[in-house]
């Protein structure tokens, strides 16, 4: 929402994140109280309401708009054999179903992530019939222009998992991906035996600019250069988020160079990396770090094929995405709290 569209005085109202911080609770808990959702203890509800009064936020009823109709949200996710995106789609459905009084209809669209033209056309096609869009973005001028046009028309757009720089999107929901890459670099350096090491870096696409992948790679490389200069990235591979292609590439390079000591998978395809490591017999001596706690990465952690998983909690991302779009329409003067999804590190001993 532009500043010009904000009613006089509204900008002085505390943010939801301010209330959460003052009350010592999470933003999600404040959101539940604002919308009368179950799952919050009476003591916590009373604390949040008293905090709102103290901060001059007003009682919940005083700033919620009366719903006029059911809201329609559209979410665009990449199609393909990507377990994380399947999990995210399921969580988005659950999050939309949790909106009180069935106030949201959710349409999920699965498209080719590696075609910016397809993404651009899809965004423009659904814009006239939607109340909000969430999209896994790609850094591309066509995509940016389409999102800016839609945002200018008053339709909220949330970038999900991967952000889009210099765009007019309402909010970004996802990790601090540079910090995630630095975390992976730190883990790789600490888990690797002392001395020189050869590392493979696996990305979804090297030709297209996905900000999440780009920032993870930058963070990873920076930590290796600063803290573990004996570790060298000798291969940068492109998987297209396809576990079968990932399997073929990793298996081929391990057969060609048995001295590989580490693999960092920035993208999807952990299933293929793990299968190649197990089939070639290198699983017990190569440090393997990847992203997203899926059925496959969980099993690889348990059996020792994988050493660490950096996760971004699809349930938390889904809930925050739906809440941002919903609150944009429901709360007068709603201000978006820009808070990255916390990085979670899973190893075999702390699996949920």
Concise synopsis of the structure shown:
With 352 residues, this protein is an alpha/beta fold. Helix content is 44%, strand content 17%.
What does this structure look like?
The protein is an alpha/beta fold and 352 residues long. It has three domains: 3-63, 434 Repressor (Amino-terminal Domain); 71-173 and 314-340, Response regulator (Rossmann fold), CATH 3.40.50.2300; 177-311, Rossmann fold, CATH 3.40.50. It is built from 13 helices and eleven strands. The protein has helices at residues 16-23, 27-34, 42-54, 60-63, 83-97, 116-126, 141-152, 177-191, 211-227, 243-256, 270-280, 295-303, 314-330, and strands at residues 71-78, 104-111, 132-135, 157-160, 171-173, 197-203, 231-238, 260-265, 287-291, 308-311, 344-346. The strands form two sheets. The protein has a six-stranded mixed beta sheet, with helices on both faces. A five-stranded parallel beta sheet has the order 2-1-3-4-5, with helices on both faces. Helix 8 runs parallel beside helix 9 and helix 10 (243-256) runs parallel beside helix 11. It is globular, with a radius of gyration of 22 Å.
**Proportion of residues in β-strands:** 15-25%
The helix/strand class is: alpha/beta
Strand order of the largest sheet: 7-6-8-9-10-11
Q: In one word, what is the shape?
A: globular
Low-confidence stretches are 1-11
Features:
352 residues, alpha/beta, 434 Repressor (Amino-terminal Domain), Rossmann fold, 3 domains, six-stranded mixed sheet, five-stranded parallel sheet, 13 helices, 11 strands, 44% helix, 17% strand, globular
């Amino acid at each position: 929402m532009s500043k010009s569209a904000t009613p006089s005085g509204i900008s002085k109202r505390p943010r939801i994140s301010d209330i959460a911080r003052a009350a010592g609770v999470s933003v999600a808990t404040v959101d539940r109280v604002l919308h009368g959702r179950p799952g919050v203890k009476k003591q916590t509800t009373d604390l949040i309401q008293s905090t709102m009064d103290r901060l001059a936020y007003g009682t919940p009823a005083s700033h919620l708009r009366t719903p006029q109709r059911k809201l329609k949200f559209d979410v665009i996710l990449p199609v393909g054999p990507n377990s994380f995106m399947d999990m995210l789609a399921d969580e988005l459905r659950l999050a939309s179903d949790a909106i009180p009084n069935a106030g949201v209809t959710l349409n999920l669209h699965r498209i080719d992530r590696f075609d910016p033209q397809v993404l651009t056309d899809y965004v423009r096609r659904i814009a006239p019939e939607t109340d909000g869009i969430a999209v896994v973005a790609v850094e591309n001028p066509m995509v940016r222009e389409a999102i800016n046009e839609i945002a200018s028309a008053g339709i909220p757009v949330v970038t999900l998992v991967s952000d889009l720089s210099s765009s007019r999107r309402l909010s970004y929901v996802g990790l601090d991906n540079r910090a995630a890459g630095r975390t992976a670099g730190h883990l790789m350096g600490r888990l690797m035996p002392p001395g020189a090491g050869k590392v493979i870096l696996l990305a979804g696409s090297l030709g297209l600019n996905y900000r999440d992948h780009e920032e993870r790679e930058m963070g990873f490389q920076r930590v290796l250069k600063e803290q573990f200069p004996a570790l060298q990235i000798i291969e940068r591979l492109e998987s297209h988020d396809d576990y079968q292609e990932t399997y073929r590439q990793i298996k081929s390079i391990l057969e060609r160079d048995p001295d590989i000591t580490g693999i960092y998978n920035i993208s999807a395809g952990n299933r293929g990396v793990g299968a190649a490591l197990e089939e070639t017999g290198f699983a017990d001596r190569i440090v393997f770090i990847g992203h997203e706690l899926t059925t496959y990465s969980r099993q690889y952690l348990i059996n020792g094929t994988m050493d660490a998983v950096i996760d971004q909690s699809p349930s938390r991302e889904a809930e925050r995405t739906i809440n941002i779009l919903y609150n944009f329409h429901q709360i007068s003067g709603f201000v978006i709290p820009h808070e990255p999804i916390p990085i979670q590190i899973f190893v075999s001993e702390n699996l949920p």
